[in-house]
Design brief:
The chain is α/β, with parallel strands linked by helices and 425 residues long. It is built from 15 helices and 14 strands. β9, α9 (262-268) and β10 (275-277) form a beta-alpha-beta unit. α14 (393-399) packs across α15 (403-410). The protein binds guanosine-5'-triphosphate, iron/sulfur cluster and magnesium ion.
Length: 425
Amino acid sequence: MIVIRDQIGIFGKMNAGKSSLMNLLTQQATSIVDATPGTTADAKAALQEIHGLGPVKLVDTAGIDERTGLGGKKRQQAMTVLKECDLVLLVVNPATVGFEPEQVILEAARELDKQLLVVYNLFDPSHAAHTAAVEHALPLLRFHRKITLAAVDAGCRQELLHFVRANFVSKTVRTDLLPFARRDAFFLLNIPMDDETPPERLLRPQAMAEAELTRRWAWPVCYRMDLAKARADDPDERRRFETIVARLGDNLQGIITDSQAMDIMNRWTPATIPLTTFSIMMINFVSQGRLADFVRGAAVLDSLQPGDRILIAEACNHSRIAEDIGTVQIPALIRRRWPGVMIDHNFGREFQANGTLNRYRLVIHCGGCMISPQKLLARIRDLDVIGVPYTNYGIVLAYAQGREALGKVLAPWGIPLPTSPRKTG
Ligand SMILES: Nc1nc2c(ncn2[C@@H]2O[C@H](COP(=O)(O)OP(=O)(O)OP(=O)(O)O)[C@@H](O)[C@H]2O)c(=O)[nH]1
Ligand code: SF4
Ligand SMILES: [Mg+2]
């Protein structure tokens, strides 16, 4: 289950006391603290429940001022974390000199419209006298609230929490996973299960749908379709499906299917029964209700040309075997429908590090069930800035069955198909 958390990142120069601040907040040795500059390399995350703020994800980052090749990589990762943060805690040791790194963080936070609070970390109480010089060097600081403390002093924790609670406004919204689910109605969850299905559990979107329907007093019914038999038009398999639909009767309010079964479900689902896919449900949830943006991106499919390049982006590194959607099914579909279109892949949690995003006509993103809304929204923001349209697996697999099929899976979300597709390029 995805818990929606505000993400609080800790940034600053090397040795400013960022890891000490992390440990002050988590009340344990979460990050290594040491006098050696550059101690923190990879960003270190900790999940925490903060009274008055709720569940948060704290992220301690490397100092961005290390002037080595490794330092450049640390800096790039820290700036990626910044893009995903809801709150930037800028740790400043006022007794240091040269505040260009702090200026970089301030400018990035303002550019990305991030909330930023300043933590003056005093290694000695007398260093408070230096804050005026810091504010002279960094005029942007006047727009941000500040606290003065000693990160190594456990007694400062409550004051820091109070400061954050008083000055941080959470903008994280919880999107309904299935806003159209009705009480006392059946929902059929079509879960074909294949070689990639884990042995002892449902996939995350399936489990989330089941939990959400139950929470809403609806009745989830899991149904396992034999995809091979269904594709071979096996009459027994068709009868199995028709039987379950008939048994649920008028109380069947909708079907949520694995996207890869869209070719069958488009034909087999009675016209009166709403149909959508787990992938569409998930991308709407993780993007916090921005499904319409992903639908708009799909219009590019109408004008793909040989030589165009598309990126298939998956947000995790699950084991890919047999008929994997991202590596086998969607590429096969693209090659069939749009010969000559080139396909690249981007797997895993890193995305912004891909410096060639602007060469893609379209990004086709998975459901994103393994990443936070902040991470997905940071991806979307980057793509919006460089003007690369994006869509989603579920949308593409429905579109492959025709515009009517796409209209059908979007209908439960109240998103109409554009009447005339936008042509780009
Ligand atoms: N006296 C004093 N020492 C501090 C304070 N904050 C940090 N230090 C010391 O400063 C050194 C660096 O602290 P860290 O918390 O590791 O600093 P950092 O910003 O995480 O450093 P990097 O990971 O190297 O970028 C350690 O020796 C800390 O004990 C403070 O408030 N007072
Ligand atoms: S993050 Fe994407 S690729 Fe990974 S399991 Fe979820 S939907 Fe599939
Ligand atoms: Mg550190």
